[in-house]
Amino acid sequence: MKVLKTHKTFGGLTRFWEHESTSTKTKMNFSTFTPPGELRGCLIWLSGLTCTDENFITKAGAQRVLAEKGLMVICPDTSPRGTQLPGEHDSWDFGSGAGFYVNATTPGYRDHYRMYDYVSQEIYAIVQKDFGIDHTMISISGHSMGGHGALILGLREPEKFRTVSAFSPIVNPTACPWGEKAFTGYLGAESRASWSEWDACELVRAGRFHPREILIDQGTDDNFLEKQLLTDNLVRACEGTKQKLKVRFQEGYDHSYYFISTFIADHL
Amino acid sequence: MKVLKTHKTFGGLTRFWEHESTSTKTKMNFSTFTPPGELRGCLIWLSGLTCTDENFITKAGAQRVLAEKGLMVICPDTSPRGTQLPGEHDSWDFGSGAGFYVNATTPGYRDHYRMYDYVSQEIYAIVQKDFGIDHTMISISGHSMGGHGALILGLREPEKFRTVSAFSPIVNPTACPWGEKAFTGYLGAESRASWSEWDACELVRAGRFHPREILIDQGTDDNFLEKQLLTDNLVRACEGTKQKLKVRFQEGYDHSYYFISTFIADHL
Q: What is the pLDDT of residues B28-78, one digit of tens each?
C-alpha cells in the first residue's frame, strides 16, 4: 500500500492510496480520512456512477464530523482501472467508473470486476489490519450506485457491518435501466435468475435483513428518483419483514454532493 | 443574469450564474450560496490560479456555516473566458484562470482582463442590487491569487469591505515569479513603477490600510510559501503602520481546499 497524497484536514489526515488488489487483479485506488487522536470506528463509503475515490472526500464535508467523533472513512474507487475489456470505456454507466459492487461472471469482466469481494474482503481487511479498527466498529454507506452497494453488502453480510445507510440508492437494480444494463454486462442476460442476489429489494423479499434500522436519505427533486432509484420499491419490500427501514424524503434536494453534505452528519 | 444550475444545500440554495460583464466585455460566471431565512451579509470569495467559480462552493464546506449565520457567498470566476488573446491559454499561471484581479493595460488584455473593476464594481453592485445586501455588510476573502485579490481590494477601497481576510495569499506579487509573470503580461515590464498599486506589501508601505485587523491563515507545509507567497514580507510591511495583521501559521497544512475547509468557519 502506497500513499500518493496527504493533506492535513481538521487536525487529521486526508490521504490517497494505491495498492495491488487480489480481487480485481489490478492496481486499485482508495482515499481515507483518519481523525486526530483515538480511532473509534470506520465508515466504508461507496460512491456512485462516474465517481472515483475523490468525490466523497473532496465534496461531502465529512472530515469535520469524523474528526469530532474519532471516526475514519475509507472510499474505494468505483471500478478497476487500466484494463481494456469489450465495451468497458464506451459509456458512463457501465464498465470503468460503474462497477456496481457485484462479482462479474461474464467473460473478461469476471477476471477483474469483482467489486463485491474487493469491498467485503479486501477493503474490510485493510480497515482492520492497516488501521486497527475492531470488526464490530465498521459501518457502510454510499450514494446512488454506491447506496445499492451499501445495501447489498449490509443485507448479504449483516454480521460484518454495525450500521447500513445510503443516500439516493438504486434499491432495485433488476427493475431499472441502469441496473439492467450493468447486470446484463456483468452477470449475463441468460443468468437473470441469479441477478436477485445483487438486488436489495430481492434480498429483503428472500428474508435477508440487517438487525439495525437502515437509514436512507432521498431528495424529492432527484432527477433519477422515478426511473432509476425506485425508493418506494424498497419501502414496500420491507413491509412485514424483519428489516426496519427509515426513508427520509428530503424536500427540494437533488442527486448531488450538495445534498449529501447537508445530511452526512446524521449518517456518521 | 441567468441561473445555470440550482442545488438545495443546508436549507439554502447553491446556484451557478452567467451574465454579460461590462468590465470584461465577455460573459462571466459566478456561483452563490444564499441561506434560508433572513440574509444578513455577504462574503465575496476570490479563488486562486486555475480555479473557476466552482472550487470554493464545491470544496470549502462553507454552506453549513453560512446557513447558520444567515450569510451569502458570491464566488466570481478567476478570469474572462472565451477570448483568444496572445498567450492567453498557453500556461496555467497566466491568462485564462489567472486574471490576478488587476486592470490590465497591455494591448489585447486591457480590453477584457479588468478583473479588479469586475469585482470591485460589478460583483459589488450585484450583491447589493440583486441580493439586497447593505453595503456595510460586504466582506472579502480569497485563496492564493484570490488572497492577493482580497488584500488589494481591501487596502485600496477599505470603505467598501467590512472585513478582509485570506488563505495562503500571494502578499507581494512584484517580488515573486507568479506575480512577475502576470504583471509583465497584464501591466507591461516597462510600467514596472505602476505595479506597486496592485501589491499588498507595497500598498501598506504607501500608507494604505484597512481599519480592521486582517486575518491570514497560512499552512506551514504549503509548497508555495517560500518562493511565491512570501507571507513574512507582509508581516514586516505592516510593522509600525496602521494596518493590524493577524497571521496564523497552521502547522502541517498545505495549499489545498482541505486546509481551507478546516479554518473557513473562522473567516465567516
A: 999 999 999 999 999 999 999 999 999 999 999 999 999 999 999 999 999
SS3 assignment, position A113? coil
Residue B227: per-residue pLDDT: 96
Residue closest to B75 by CA, chosen among B134, B155, B143: B143
Phi and psi (nearest 5°) for A193?
-60, -30
| CB-closest option in B11, B64, B254 to A8 | B254
Domain positions in chain A? 2-267
Question: Could you identify the residue written with the cell 454506491?
Answer: A146
State the smallest CA–CA distance between residue A57 and chain B in angstroms.
9
Is B10 at the interface with chain A, CB within 8 A?
A: yes
Closest CA to B80 of B120, B131, B114: B114
Out of A11, A14, A256, closest to residue B7 by CB: A256
One-letter amino acid at B20 equals E
Say what the pLDDT of residue A27 is.
97
- Compute the distance between CA of residue A48 and CA of residue A249 in angstroms, rounded to an integer: 19
CATH 3.40.50.1820 fits A2-267, yes or no: yes
pLDDT of residue B214: 98
Q: Cβ contact (<8 Å) for A258 and B61?
A: no
Dihedral sign computed on CA atoms, order A11, A16, A20, A26: positive
Nearest to A241 by CA among A200, A212, A195, A208: A208
Count of Cβ atoms closer than 10 Å to residue B25 Cβ:
13
ipTM associated with this complex: 0.91
Q: Span A164-186, mean pLDDT?
A: 97
Residue A184 at interface with chain B, using a CB cutoff of 8 Å: no
Q: How confident is the model over B103-142, as pLDDT tens digits?
A: 999 999 999 999 999 999 999 999 999 999 999 999 999 9
Q: Is B217 a catalytic residue?
A: no
Q: To which residue does cell 479486501 refer? A: A122
On whether any CB of chain A is under 8 Å from the CB of B262, the answer is: yes
